[in-house]
Design a protein that fits this description.
The complex is a heterodimer of chains A (317) and B (274). Chain A is mainly α. Chain A has 14 helices and two strands. Chain B is 76% helix and 0% strand. Classes of the chains: A mainly alpha (317), B mainly alpha (274).
Chain lengths: 317, 274
């Protein structure tokens, strides 16, 4: 009974599919137009609050404007200032210095930790480590900034530990010292991003064909050789993703710096994101702020596109 | 593969050390939060008389109840809306394959690596022009727009993987486009949608730049934005600040622990696809 009722429509459907296909083609064309209605809301939100402001940023960057009086056309003067004013140039340098900490440490250390987790550590412990490593990705960066400001302060844990092992002489307010403030901010970023990179790389490692490792071992490769010849090439795409995500985080750092140092001491930790905020909303130099914003966005693309190109190409072959 | 026991122990020890390092700031904040309000305790130091009342005091000082409410309102306004319109666009681009869809998709991709700082200045003037400055709409509306690149990208990837035959079969049965979307594809998209929803919730909760630029009153901000104001006001009272920060990050940790598998998978796939 049930057999016939279910099979009857199915037969009918098979027959009708032939005859309906022509009508379907007509409708598909119609649908492709109507489909635009489905993209429209997203496109409207995106256009209104991303694309339009983006165009405005480019426009503002060509004007001298305090946000109140009528803007004055200045051509590329704002950009000349960005690349010649020592304060602004140092801001761009800081962004690149942060890449060393935000990208370098998480990727290198992440590779090491992921290797340990996959091969050496007990499985249960690895699972716990995954969870813990991911926590910094979840909490607000603002809270991370507050916690680390405290850890790195004069009476913080870092100095406590240093004094305990006899290095009382090097203790200092790490975020308030001209020499250590930027690396200290960088370490906060490394702490945030290490977990994401580790787990990403770990996922990549589990996808590498074990036969490759066996082959390497048969050829008499040691652990180091195995890592260089099998693991690293196999992780090409994941490493590319890690570098991409962390470089964007470094160049556009804002929350952590705002909370932990406000760009200080002096200008020692001033980064582009914070500088844009200050120029536009406190110094009333909207044009200059926009020029810096344009430079920042171009920098992100200039850094990201080659990485994407390299790793995509690798995954194709 | 047989690994010597000694290396296993060594690897385990290394991992434990690493976990301790990751947890250190939280631990330090926790012990500090228990000290007498207004004192300068050492970084990691269990107090002789834990002041559990600090959490209550911080809750009151920051008017935390109101901030929780404000953040919840913003999340409720941003996340369902963003998810639905991202889903619709992803459906049109991934399943309906609309004409010119590739171009539209590239346009969205453009925004994927965009730092928010790049557009924050014009957004300020735009929102001011709309008369929405210092209202929650000033955070809600731009955030929906800023979430679109990732949202559309994510949902399109999902809909590309759903076989076309499914749509064709529903068509033959006479389903309209809306029925096809709402009755057939949306129920199937549940895992992708919930991951996206969780990510967007946490991103909204933690959003900092928009609130500090667009909304002066901490009680109209997101959690992270309010925490920034709290730091400005109570920055010198370290125990109280620590207690407040812990209260503010607690919900994100709870969400993370509850939805851990979703969350990790979503973040990983999100960055891998990007």
């Amino acid at each position: 009974m049930t057999q016939t009722t279910t099979s009857a429509p199915r037969d009918y459907r098979a027959l009708s599919r032939e005859s309906a296909s022509r009508a379907l083609q007509v409708r598909v064309r119609d649908v492709r137009l109507r489909g635009w209605l489905y993209v429209l809301p997203a496109l409207a939100a995106y256009g209104l609050f991303v694309l339009w402001p983006l165009i405005q940023t480019f426009k503002y960057s060509l004007y001298l404007w305090d946000g109140v009086a009528p803007p004055q056309w200045t051509g590329l003067d704002n950009f000349k200032t960005v690349f010649s004013d020592p304060d602004l140039v140092s801001v761009l340098e800081h962004a690149f210095e942060l890449i060393i900490f935000f990208s370098g440490i998480p990727v290198v250390l992440g590779l090491a930790v992921a290797t340990v987790m996959q091969r050496l550590a007990p499985r249960r412990l690895s699972a716990a480590a995954r969870t813990v490593l991911f926590l910094p990705q979840v909490v607000p960066l603002v809270a991370a900034g507050i916690a680390w400001s405290w850890v790195l302060s004069t009476s913080g844990v870092v100095n406590q530990a240093l004094s305990a092992i006899g290095f009382g002489g090097v203790t200092r307010a790490w975020l308030g010292d001209f020499g250590t403030a930027l690396p200290a901010v960088g370490m906060i970023g490394a702490w945030v991003l290490l977990g994401l990179c580790t787990v990403l790389l770990l996922t990549g490692m589990s996808k590498i064909d074990p036969a490759l490792y066996e082959a390497a071992q048969l050829d008499g490769a040691g652990a180091v050789r195995e890592f260089v010849a099998v693991t690293l090439p196999g992780l090409r795409q994941e490493i590319g993703v890690c570098v991409t995500v962390t470089v964007i985080a470094a160049l556009s750092a804002f929350d952590i710096v705002y909370i932990s140092t406000r760009g200080g001491p002096g200008n020692a930790t001033m980064v582009p994101g914070l500088m844009i905020y200050q120029l536009a909303f406190f110094n009333r130099e909207v044009g200059l702020a926009s020029a810096l914003a344009v430079v920042l966005m171009v920098l992100v693309l200039v850094c990201i596109l080659p990485i994407q190109w390299l790793t995509r190409k690798g995954s194709d072959s | 593969m047989i690994v010597a026991r000694r290396t296993t122990v060594l690897g385990g020890a290394l991992l434990v050390l690493l976990m301790a390092l990751i947890l250190l700031p939280f631990a330090s904040m926790f012990t500090t939060a228990l000290h007498q309000s207004g004192t300068y305790p050492n970084g990691l130091d269990w107090p002789s008389q834990p002041q559990w009342g600090n959490f209550g005091a911080a809750f009151q000082a920051a008017n935390m109840g109101a901030i929780f409410g404000s953040s919840a309102l913003i999340v409720i306004a941003v996340v369902p809306m963003s998810v639905v319109i991202a889903m619709m666009a992803g459906f049109a681009l991934g399943q309906l394959k609309i004409r010119g869809g590739r171009l539209v998709f590239l346009l969205f991709l453009l925004g994927l690596t965009l730092p928010f700082e790049g557009v924050i200045v014009p957004i300020y003037y735009e929102i001011r022009g709309m008369g929405l400055l210092n209202t929650r709409w000033a955070i809600i509306l731009p955030l929906i727009g800023l979430f679109m690149p990732f949202g559309v990208f994510w949902m399109r990837a999902h809909f590309l993987n759903v076989p076309q035959e499914l749509s064709e079969a529903a068509r033959v049965d006479g389903a309209t486009t809306w029925q096809l979307f709402w009755r057939v594809h949306v129920p199937l998209a549940r895992p992708a949608v919930s991951s996206l929803g969780i990510l967007m919730t946490v991103w909204t909760w933690n959003q900092f730049l928009l609130p500090i630029v667009l909304v002066d009153d901490p009680l109209e901000r997101t959690m992270a934005g309010a925490l920034g104001a709290f730091q400005g006001q109570w920055g010198t009272d370290i125990p109280l600040l620590s207690a407040g920060s812990l209260l503010i990050l607690a919900p994100t940790i709870i969400v993370f622990v509850l939805f851990q598998r979703h969350f990790v998978a979503a973040l990983l796939q999100g960055s891998l696809k990007g």
